[in-house]
Amino acid sequence: MNYRHAFHAGNFADVMKHVLLVRLLRAMQRKEKGFLYLDTHAGRGGYDLERAATGTTLARKPEWPDGLGRLWPRDDLPPLMAEYIALVRDFDRNRGNIDASIRFYPGSPALARMVGRIQDRLALCEQHPAEAAALRDEFCFASRTSVHQMDGYVAMRAMLPAAERRALVLIDPPFEAGNEFAAITNALAAGLERQPAAVFAVWYPLTERARVDDFFVALRELALPPTMAAELAVGGEHADLKMKGCGLLILNPPWQFDREVEPLLRFMADVLAQAPGGNARIEWIVPER
């Protein structure tokens, strides 16, 4: 699977990931002390949805109308989801869009910077040269933010433990390599060794259930802290969809995080479904003690 961010910006998977990311950031901010936000596969930071609808050579059907586009005009959003939409609106307007329809969409780094406090620090990693250059341009004047052109998995060892002694790590790879789940498992092992109490969030696609289940089995061989998986499916097992859903694996989730996001997941399952059988669920890989 090739999951270059620009081609899929604002789709249902971005919505799910970013709604939960904002909640994680807010949960980290319940304490006054600052923390490190480490983004291992940061992409370019922001996306022009008009350009995102164009492939390398041919126009392609945009994906955001079935994701962000379904939420954009609604006035009945749950308050915690409305905050995410408000952040996206601010980003869009700050980029100069004055139309009623969305054009500019923030990536994870931009959302983290918008939510971040003066005492919070961002370290953004991107290995792809063109994406890293765009990311550097995006954040060249941002305080307490560093951009690194490097393998994000290597960053787990290079940047942890955080000087702040608190960290939120987002691992959101493009899933271009066949061994991506194994690489994630190894990276999590290294991250836990370096900073056991950090919050680690891993985005993953739901294309083949068996691959994800094998990933969970491999994870259980680690000395995991409390670990939960939040999943959103926009179609059932037999739906004619290349990607039927996605998940966010969270190690050391904040207190009662599952209770906070469960109604948001249910709302997204109803609004973003693309085929019969759409649903949402939370599974504890390692229950809270």
One letter per element, helices H and strands E, the order comes to: HHEEHHHEHEHEHEHEHEEHE
How large is the radius of gyration? 18 Å
The order of strands across the largest sheet is 5-4-1-6-7-9-8-10
Query: What is the structural class?
Result: alpha/beta
Query: Would you give the CATH topology?
Result: Rossmann fold
Q: Separation of termini?
A: 36 Å
- Separate helix tally: 11
Strand content: 15-25%
Main CATH class:
Alpha Beta
Low-pLDDT parts are none
Mean pLDDT: 92
User: Which CATH-level-2 architecture?
Assistant: 3-Layer(aba) Sandwich
What is the H level of CATH, i.e. the homologous superfamily?
A: Vaccinia Virus protein VP39
Integer count of domains: 1
Question: How many strands, what sense, and barrel or not for the largest sheet?
Answer: 8 strands, mixed
Shape: globular
In total, how many beta strands? Answer: 10
Helix content: 25-40%
Task: Provide key terms for this protein.
11 helices; eight-stranded mixed sheet; globular; 289 residues; single chain; alpha/beta; Rossmann fold
Short description:
It is built from eleven helices and ten strands. By secondary structure, it is of the alpha/beta class.
